[in-house]
Specification:
By secondary structure, this protein is α+β, with helices and mostly antiparallel strands. The protein is built from five helices and ten strands; from the N terminus they run αβααββααβββββββ. It has an eight-stranded antiparallel β-barrel. The longest helix has 26 residues, at about 5-30. Mean pLDDT is about 85; it is low at about 20-30.
């Protein structure tokens, strides 16, 4: 928790600094280059704890590949250019909670276990991030990004669709490779207005493929 403000301030500085620097570079090298809208298939690995390294190790050793799958959410991401290097990126991400121990013991193969886990899910989760970011593209091979924004969450349990009070504040950095693949790393923390929920901070990794 004590590092939360530092992480948020650092990302803000990176975002604004990247934007100002990239605009100067753009005037000199690429005065007419513009961003274009892009739709991505995106997968998040959401660390269940603040210590992501230990969380990944625990997932890898648990139930073979089933351990990592249990903390992955997938969905769609749409990047919309606003002005020069600034963009907004709404997303719709789906995940579900289930008894993974039961799924692991009830089936002896990977895909049947996933099917069993989904069929016996406790509830479904729908995340709607709205990221605002800056993108610097010095080469056709890659581009760097920094972004932040709120994440709104809804849950569906036994036909009861509910909005989760408050929101999650998300901030991160990313790389676009060959204008096809994107990788991200970031930080999330639960908030209500400007109040931070205790023990809600965790890191995430994400990868996206452009349609």
């Amino acid at each position: 928790m004590k590092h939360t403000r530092r992480i948020i301030v650092f990302t803000l500085l990176v975002a604004f600094g990247s934007s100002a620097f990239s605009q100067d570079i753009d005037k000199i090298i690429r005065p007419r280059k513009r961003q274009t809208p892009a739709l991505y298939l995106k997968a998040y690995y959401l660390s269940p704890s603040i210590n992501m390294v230990n969380a990944i190790r625990a997932d890898i050793t648990y139930g073979e590949t089933l351990g990592v799958i249990r903390n992955i959410n997938i969905g769609l991401s749409y990047r919309i250019p606003i002005y020069r290097f600034i963009y907004i990126q709404p997303e719709a991400i789906y995940g579900f909670a289930t008894d993974w121990n039961d799924a692991f013991q009830s089936r002896d193969q990977f895909f049947p276990r996933i099917g069993y886990a989904f069929e016996h899910r406790l509830y479904s989760s729908f995340d709607f991030p709205i990221h605002i970011g800056a993108r610097w593209c010095p080469s056709k091979l890659f581009a760097a990004r920094a972004y932040l924004g709120p994440v709104f969450n809804f849950t569906l349990a036994k036909k009861d669709f509910r909005y989760t009070p408050g929101y999650v504040f998300s901030t991160g950095v990313g790389l676009d490779l060959l204008n096809i693949l994107s990788v991200d790393a970031g930080y999330r923390i639960g908030m209500y207005n400007l109040t931070i929920y205790n023990e809600t901070a965790h890191f995430f990794l994400a990868t996206s493929i452009k349609f």
